[in-house]
């Protein structure tokens, strides 16, 4: 049994806007097994309260295409895949019921692959080619700040996540590998790879922010669907 997310630091703090006190987790969600949800063999079940799920399923995060056209560098991407979310470690999960904000922080090693076609200039050097790119984003720290409202269905309240804001920090040195550059000229290709990988922090921070936003969209949708499936209790009756 492999966990999708493990609690390295469990910081679940619930703030009541009236009492300004910590509320036990069991007083918030009707599903008291909330802390046991992160299991790959968990299934969606039905109860008198409607369908519930006890698993956050991520798998391979995919999207079809993306394009960078910035400062002379053109990079067309297709068949994009992020692997590593099934091994993500949850560092923090907090709910603020005063400002209605959910904060999730986690880290993982991500492997990104996609088909590419590139041209133009990168790091003041000409670049062209097409093939398969592989990027190893080791120890990627991700935080998501998510405002929410409450939604009531059949007399039961759930949290409706509205949008997200993502921050990320890649702690380990990143390796980028283009399978084909300069029509297979190994010398030119090695020089460009060396230049990119020596300046990987600049390349990722300068060209990768919107790309990471795109990566976070399906993750946000998983959390959104999960929170809607778990109804809230009446704090006063707990």
From TrEMBL:
Keywords, comma-separated and alphabetical: Signal
InterPro entries per UniProt: Haemolymph_juvenile_hormone-bd, To_sf
Pfam assignment, any one: JHBP
Keyword field contains NAD: no
Organism: Euphydryas editha
Signal sequence interval, chain numbering: 1-19
GO cellular component annotations of the record: extracellular space
UniProt name for this protein: Circadian clock-controlled protein
Domain of life: Eukaryota
Keyword Ribonucleoprotein: no
